[in-house]
Design goal:
By secondary structure, the chain is an alpha/beta fold. The chain has one domain: Rossmann fold (3-Layer(aba) Sandwich), CATH 3.40.50. The protein is built from 10 helices and 7 strands. The radius of gyration is 17 Å and the shape is globular. Bound molecules: S-adenosylmethionine. S-adenosylmethionine binds next to α2, α4, α5 and β4. The site of S-adenosylmethionine has 22 residues, from α2, α4, α5 and β4.
Length: 235
Amino acid sequence: MNTLDQQTALDEAARERIKASHGLDSDADRLAHFYRGWANSYDLDVGLDEYCGPMIVAELAGAVQTAYLAGQRATIAILDAGCGTGLVGVELERIGFRLIDGFDLSEEMAEKARQTRAYRHVRGDVDLNGPPSDYSSSSYDITVCCGVFTLGHVRPQGLRELARITRPNGFVIASTRKSYAEATSFEQEVRRLQDAGVLVPAQRLNDGRYVAEEHAHYWIFQVTHEANAQTEERP
Ligand SMILES: C[S@@+](CC[C@H](N)C(=O)[O-])C[C@H]1O[C@@H](n2cnc3c(N)ncnc32)[C@H](O)[C@@H]1O
């Protein structure tokens, strides 16, 4: 096999793993098992697929901080939900954020994130599809979530939990792959939460670059006071 063939084979294998990750039906055991096996080669695979979601999400967090939040960037408490190996945290640190926490369903992915040293604290075994986590309400100025509202991963209802953890007038920044936005009730969930006074969709980058074969939408939500007052039943 020549070098070009080897590269093509690597690209193909990376695309296959990414595709396989979309068929996990939001099942916590299957997701955790899959990502346990993928943690070592995840960064290489998504790099081959020209994954630029983390850079865009981090830069949106930077813009939101500059535009709307008082205080130095280094004092803004920011949570990376579904942090994976820490690609978003590394970008956040690059642009000056310092109080960065993260969580992930997969302990192996979370351990990779810890090893970046971009984070203050990272928890594994946190399921955004499960009952409300033990993160306190109103804990963060900004919560970011990249690559997690994607097919087979976290259901739209997970957005409610991100709002709860974020302080009133803080922001939730999330990517949704276009295929996810089309196949799920994410937009209805946004409307439902808006009607319930939980959050307001403040800005949206439509159809932005994400991976080589697919674009994503990037959402910025502002959290209201109601987000933490309400205790809605979650499925
Ligand atoms: C495509 S990766 C994205 C990781 C990282 N945010 C990034 O942009 O590179 C999806 C991540 O979501 C995590 N994940 C999947 N389902 C989850 C759930 N129900 N709760 C929390 N994390 C979950 C996976 O373990 C994985 O690390």
